[in-house]
Amino acid sequence: MHHFAYRGGELYAEDVPVSTLVAAYGTPLYVYSAATLRRHFTAFDSAFGGLPHLTCFSVKANSNLSVLKTLAAMGAGVDIVSGGELYRALAAGVAPEKIVYSGVGKRAAEIEQALTAGILMFNVESLGELERISAIAKRLGKTAQVSLRINPDVDPKTHPYISTGLKKNKFGLDIENSLAAYAKAMELPNITPVGIDCHIGSQLTSISPFLEALDKILTFREKLCAMGIVPRYLDLGGGLGIQYDEEDPPHPKEFGEALTKALGDLPMTLILEPGRVIVGNAGILVTEVVYTKKTPSKDFVIVDAAMNDLIRPSLYDSFHAIREVRPAGRETLNVDVVGPICESGDFLARDRDLPAVAPGELLAVYSAGAYGFTMSSNYNSRPRAAEVLVDGETVTVARRRETYEDLIALER
Ligand SMILES: *Cc1c(COP(=O)(O)O)cnc(C)c1O
């Protein structure tokens, strides 16, 4: 459920007509709905109400300060994967003791930054990282709480680029050698292993891979307890999918019930790292039709948003619903919706039935709130889109549109 709906023949973001936003801020324009963010966060977080838990929003899905502030105000923690994301989270007012830090390539300066900020824990992905955190914590006179990220070798049945829990993936420690890694963590100075972590992939549309991973993790936990290491935290990562097209992902409530049942009354705090499920359907990308073009083999709708604004279709061949901002009840045509970038991979939709739109009209690309703006770039020297956050009738410019001056500001 989201708060982008038609009223009187035109698309609204909550109580504001999308065309009004475009008149003020131009296109391409990312529009987020605060009510949707809050609704999704509450639906997810309350699904785990029966367990001690911490919901840590995955910042890489959408790292805009206004989005982070909205979630932080609801008590959300965050999962970060870089020093830059830590900086943003702290700037948005996220409590350091609600920050977990994942990622395979944490650099020394980032580790120091996180220890100084006093984050809850590091999700450690290699022995080298473990040693490095220990050394830095020792130098700073601090103790680092860590979970080791276990790769449970579970197939999440999603796009290969967003599968992370298979043996062949670069993430985590293989489950066979992880006991030794915990033993090492016990020996190293200034490190306390406090939990177990895993994250098997993104856009999962079924609960069973999560349960399969949890089962392996719980077996692993028993061995760990037998070694005298009793984890207080169990981090199951993110990955719950959303509906882009025909998918039918489980509702967070169903997900929460299944995990609550599987965990029984184990004395652990569950950590969850949802990204997409919170913010994916809380955002649209609004774009203007620049030209329509007929070729002998295809009809094209050329719009002013491109792969630099939303790379998901090009990168993952992913589907985003596209609808008119002002539906006019015309016949449909089968078209490719493409951007102005000089790449054949620059498309937002291919072979899509769309009403026969004309130049100057506005289209809304749905489900663009997650991995949309955060994956955007300046390719073809295109200034990045503006982002606005709508809350009822209130509009916040969450990020102003980049200018040509911004494009060259760091160059000489
Ligand atoms: C990307 C990521 C997430 C969030 O994944 P979603 O599919 O957006 O929920 C959570 N944890 C880690 C470690 C990640 O890399």
UniProtKB/TrEMBL annotation:
EC number assigned by the record: 4.1.1.20
Cofactor: pyridoxal 5'-phosphate
Sites of N6-(pyridoxal phosphate)lysine modification: K60
UniProt GO BP: lysine biosynthetic process via diaminopimelate
Entries under PROSITE patterns matching the protein: ODR_DC_2_2
Residue sites binding pyridoxal 5'-phosphate per the record: G239, E273, P274, G275, R276, Y371
Keywords: Amino-acid biosynthesis, Decarboxylase, Lyase, Lysine biosynthesis, Pyridoxal phosphate
Annotated ranges, domain Orn/DAP/Arg decarboxylase 2 C-terminal: 30-369
Record InterPro entries: Ala_racemase/Decarboxylase_C, DAP_deCOOHase_LysA, De-COase2_C, De-COase2_CS, De-COase2_N, Orn/DAP/Arg_de-COase, PLP-binding_barrel
Reaction catalysis annotation: meso-2,6-diaminopimelate + H(+) = L-lysine + CO2
Active site: C342
Record has Lyase as a keyword: yes
Residues annotated for substrate binding in this entry: R276, R312, Y316, E343, Y371
GO MF annotation, one: diaminopimelate decarboxylase activity
Cross-referenced Pfam families: Orn_Arg_deC_N (PF02784), Orn_DAP_Arg_deC (PF00278)
Pathway(s) this gene product operates in, as recorded in its UniProt entry: Amino-acid biosynthesis; L-lysine biosynthesis via DAP pathway; L-lysine from DL-2,6-diaminopimelate: step 1/1
Residues annotated as domain Orn/DAP/Arg decarboxylase 2 N-terminal: 35-279
Subunit-structure text: Homodimer.
PANTHER family, per database record: DIAMINOPIMELATE DECARBOXYLASE, GROUP IV DECARBOXYLASE
Similarity comment: Belongs to the Orn/Lys/Arg decarboxylase class-II family. LysA subfamily.
Task performed by this protein: Specifically catalyzes the decarboxylation of meso-diaminopimelate (meso-DAP) to L-lysine.
Protein name per its UniProtKB record: Diaminopimelate decarboxylase
Lineage, opening ranks: Bacteria, Pseudomonadati, Thermodesulfobacteriota, Desulfovibrionia, Desulfovibrionales
